[in-house]
């Protein structure tokens, strides 16, 4: 089942779209917190986004550009502001299509289906893990927090991935070392300590202080 995220602050339009698309067999979610569009996108991992231009706090151009920092998910702009400049801006920010309001629901559905066919006949789902606003993209090994990229080494990235995949649960040192060995990163207990220290410093510098907690004699876990 394809998942569609609706970023539209008009509750009537959003509700109408959701009901219509659910009837076509899509799983649909509407954004409610317009300050946290990135977090909800990462949490829902949609196959397609319907995005209005005029929104609370930040406009659709802003969110499209931010989403493009970690995802290639198809984005269709929906807006009554359909002058040529807005259409050009929408495409330049990373949009895939632009539909003027008011629109015919059946035409919109046809465009959605066509874009989904083109997008997923040759590529898999975008795979993103999110925790406390930290975004880890498994498709290209990038890490973002508040729009800023965090540069990690291969081992640091693998350690963070291991912890984020089991967020809220204690991960033993032995499990992390085993995970790294499976990826041909041959490290011992001392090397893990060094990598963990460097990873914590980089997360702290990015504004994520004490994200990784130590359970003495057991392992590590991510702070909820």
UniProtKB/TrEMBL annotation:
Modified residues (4-aspartylphosphate): 52
GO cellular component: cytosol; protein-DNA complex
Pfam families: Response_reg, Trans_reg_C
One BP annotation, GO: regulation of DNA-templated transcription
Keywords, comma-separated and alphabetical: DNA-binding, Phosphoprotein, Transcription, Transcription regulation
Keyword flag Cytoplasm: no
OmpR/PhoB-type domain boundaries: 126-224
Ranges for domain Response regulatory: 3-116
Domain of life according to the entry: Bacteria
CDD domains: REC_OmpR_NsrR-like, trans_reg_C
Molecular function via GO: phosphorelay response regulator activity; transcription cis-regulatory region binding
Keyword DNA-binding part of the UniProt annotation: yes
InterPro entries according to UniProt: CheY-like_superfamily, OmpR/PhoB-type_DNA-bd, Sig_transdc_resp-reg_receiver, WalR-like, WH-like_DNA-bd_sf
DNA-binding region ranges: 126-224
Function summary: May play the central regulatory role in sporulation. It may be an element of the effector pathway responsible for the activation of sporulation genes in response to nutritional stress. Spo0A may act in concert with spo0H (a sigma factor) to control the expression of some genes that are critical to the sporulation process.
Name assigned to this protein: Stage 0 sporulation protein A homolog
Species assigned in the record: Sellimonas intestinalis
């Amino acid at each position: 089942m394809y998942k569609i995220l609706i970023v539209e602050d008009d509750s009537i339009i959003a509700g109408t779209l959701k009901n219509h698309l659910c009837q076509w067999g899509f799983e649909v979610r509407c954004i409610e917190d317009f300050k946290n569009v990135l977090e909800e996108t990462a949490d829902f991992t949609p196959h397609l986004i319907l995005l209005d231009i005029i929104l609370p706090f930040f406009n659709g151009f802003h969110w499209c550009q931010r989403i493009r920092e970690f995802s290639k998910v198809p984005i269709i702009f929906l807006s009554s502001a359909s002058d040529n400049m807005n259409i050009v801006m929408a495409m330049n920010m990373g949009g895939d299509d632009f539909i003027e309001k008011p629109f015919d629901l059946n035409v919109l559905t046809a465009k959605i289906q066509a874009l989904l066919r083109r997008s997923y006949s040759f590529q898999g789902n975008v795979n993103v893990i999110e925790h406390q606003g930290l975004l880890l993209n498994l498709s290209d090994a990038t890490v973002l927090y508040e729009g800023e990229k965090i540069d990690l080494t291969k081992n640091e990235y693998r350690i963070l991935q291991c912890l984020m995949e089991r967020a809220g649960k204690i991960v033993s040192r032995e499990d992390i070392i085993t995970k790294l060995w499976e990826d041909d990163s041959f490290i011992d207990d001392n090397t893990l300590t060094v990598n963990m220290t460097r990873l914590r410093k980089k997360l702290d510098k990015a504004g994520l202080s004490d994200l990784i907690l130590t359970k003495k004699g057991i392992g590590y876990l991510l702070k909820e």
